[in-house]
Write a structure and sequence with these properties.
- The chain is α/β, with parallel strands linked by helices.
- It has a single domain (4-299), classed as Thiamin diphosphate (ThDP)-binding fold, Pyr/PP domains (Rossmann fold), CATH 3.40.50.970.
- The chain has helices at residues 24-36, 48-52, 73-86, 100-104, 107-115, 161-166, 181-192, 207-210, 217-226, 258-263, 277-299; strands at 41-45, 65-68, 93-98, 121-126, 172-177, 198-203, 233-236, 239-242.
- Strands 2-1-3-4-6-5-7-8 form an eight-stranded mixed sheet, sandwiched between helices.
- Strand 1 (41-45), helix 2 and strand 2 form a beta-alpha-beta unit.
- The longest helix is centred in the last third of the chain and has 23 residues, at 277-299.
- It starts with 23 loop residues before the first helix and ends in a 6-residue tail after the last helix.
Length: 305
Amino acid sequence: MVSVRELTREEYWLPGHAACAGCPATLGLRMLGKALEGRFVLVVPAGCTTVIQGTYPRTPSRVPLVNTAFAASAAVASGLRAALEARGLDVPVVVWAGDGGTADIGLQALSGAAERNEDIIYICYDNEAYQNTGIQRSGATPRGAWTTTTPSGKAEGRKDVPLIVAAHRVPYVATASVAYPLDFVEKVRKAASKRGFKYIHLHAPCPTGWRFPPSEMVRVGRLAVETGAWVLFEIEGGVLRLTGRSAALLDPGRRRPLEEYLRAQGRFAHLLRPENAHLLERVRRDVEEYWEWIRRVLERGGRVY
């Protein structure tokens, strides 16, 4: 595991940007810059990061950045990578897209780039809703979560984009969390060391949309992992393995109660009322079923495909 002392002190995403207090995307961008030491090109579709940049001609980004349409980030990254190769430049191209631009609006371009095995790194910073445009539900919003378009809680489970991408048999797929930055840095560096399509799904707790104090962002992110609601893993060459804190949580007795994670957020407050016990049980079953699937995969050697 990479250590803090190994990270450069250089900053590639500068302070003074337009993010909300406690924004997880900015922490992720800082760690991305340190992981690749500023040597990459960033492709950003419409979303929170478009606003975080501020207004032209000033920007907090110290790396070249291309803003593109909501649906087009993977396609733009593919063309940009081809252009750099034509000029003899071996520079990583990184997509930095939210869950709306990944799980929903950008899914077709993502799938196309993965199927072609384009040599790019695609990072989805998943704040589990369309936070920038009014906190509407996305395909990545988990079951039971309040959003402005699911005021009584989302009825459906979340779309499992990491496994959708893994089904394309790409070289590398991983999940990560801004609350565990060194695990994220290590996965970014591993992705950059490989040729072909690489995908990292970064859990990004949003204080504004999830209804918790900005100072609690890292704690909420860690609770997601420690309760098993978010699992850290990587799929390399078709083989899955648990990473970081999740590696010790296969036994359900070692996980913290799921209610600790839910209670920390206003978007799940309704689930903790006595009359909604059946809804809480369904959310709990989602978590346990996912871990049971992981257990079965690991029992057969971790082979996903």
